[in-house]
Amino acid sequence: MNRTAVAIAVMLASCLAGAEPATVLRPTELKKEPASDAPTLAPLAEKSKVEVLERKGGWTRVKTESGAEGWMKMLLLRYAGPGASPKSDSGVTQALDTARGGTSSAAATTGVRGLDPDMLANARPNPAELKKMEGFAVTRESAAGFAASANLQPQKIAYPKGAP
Known about the structure:
This protein is α+β, with helices and mostly antiparallel strands.
């Protein structure tokens, strides 16, 4: 490994190391694993202070003021200070995300519930389910009638660049 690579590795490690203070936004549960059906370790009250230790998908591993460690949903946290973002969302991380994703705009994703990488890799078309889905479609006239009954007005919205 050359000097530049070592310097980058050390810089990344220092940016990502250490706990980050955060506050719980609403009552939730501290889970043993990053999953909704995982055993609950303890309840977490609204405005509880925690330290963020790790992120995994839509989950964050935290340490409570009493010393308990577990997982909670990442969207239930507010990081220290108004408008603050996690320490690991530093310029270094953003630069890596830009290189990986090709954009510098911020985005958050929490994944697709119930699907793992193997399921996605092995997905196959299901014509029967597609036909069932098509049964939920409405006609243009039906949609226009609904919009009129709710006093909705048409709006022109530009498609994002690259959209069909």
